[in-house]
Amino acid sequence: MKNKALFFLFSILFFLKTNAQCAMCRAVLESEETQSAAEGINNGIKYLMAVPYILIGGIIFFIYRKYGTLKK
């Protein structure tokens, strides 16, 4: 238990700022003047982030609908 608390303390207090981008993507996005590629990559990230939430929301909806109709 003491090790878990110590690990949690270190993970909260001592973190490193990381860049979650490959070097080539970052170089291309920083060098472009029109920023159209950056907007495209940001939109792609939004779509990739939204899909799991939509799937989980659909599953929860169908489970609620199935069990909600059985109780009535």
Describe the secondary-structure layout.
Layout: H1 2-13, H2 23-31, H3 36-71
What this model shows, in words?
The mean pLDDT is 79. This protein is 79% helix and 0% strand. The chain has one domain. With 72 residues, the chain is an all-alpha fold. It is flat, with a radius of gyration of 21 Å. The N and C termini lie far apart (46 Å). Keywords: Membrane, Signal, Transmembrane, Transmembrane helix.
Features:
mainly alpha, 0% strand, flat
Quaternary organisation: single chain
Number of domains: 1
The percent range for strand residues is under 5%
Query: How are helices and strands ordered from N to C?
Result: HHH
Number of helices: 3
- End-to-end Cα distance, whole Å, is 46 Å
What is the molecular shape? flat
- What's the total count of β strands? 0
Rg calc: 21 Å
Outline the biggest β-sheet: none
Keywords: Membrane, Signal, Transmembrane, Transmembrane helix
Quick rundown:
It is built from three helices and no strands. By secondary structure, it is mostly helical.
